[in-house]
Amino acid sequence: MKVVRALVIVFSASLAACVPAPDFDSVPRIEYSAIDQSTETDPLTGKKLRENIVITVTFEDKDGDLGATADERSDETFQSIYGKRGNYELVTFTKNPDGSWDERILSSDSTMWMPILKPDGKAGPIKGKLDYELRRPYGNSSVDIEQKYKVRIRDRALHYSNQVETDIITVPGYR
Questions:
Q1: What are the DSSP E strand ranges found in 42-87?
Q2: For residue 39, is it within any domain?
Q3: Cβ(153)–Cβ(87) under 8 Å?
Q4: pTM across the whole model
Q5: Residue 47: domain span
Q6: Which of 50, 67, 74, 85 is most open to solvent, judged by the fewest CB atoms within 10 Å of its CB?
């Protein structure tokens, strides 16, 4: 019985070793997955405080060299390599009353970092989901505006991924 178990374990291990590694590109690739939002209100007054938005993209990368540590993000040499732009890029599009779109990188979104996504540091394929959270506050004179976003990421070798666009949502803003 022990011999049969040992053979099953050896056979299973050999099958697992035969699974080919995914054939990803060394340039990261992302796909738009979802955009979700929820309204945060003051529990005492019921007044709207902010819209909490979560943008989800899926990613894949052959080298697994995505993200940066907190120490790296505060290191001037590391920042000079990245150009102080971070490794997650968000472009905000706001719909104007005439139907055209105003495109810009908001100051609050100008330097964004994702953490190290493969903490073991070993090169190899990686695949997963990234969630990025935004907050759009309500103010006394805010109005509902339509926005959409474009997202791309950058790996440690400074390769930019493709850029993906989200669906349109309604958030508080100013005209």
A1: 48-61
A2: yes
A3: yes
A4: 0.83
A5: 24-173
A6: 74
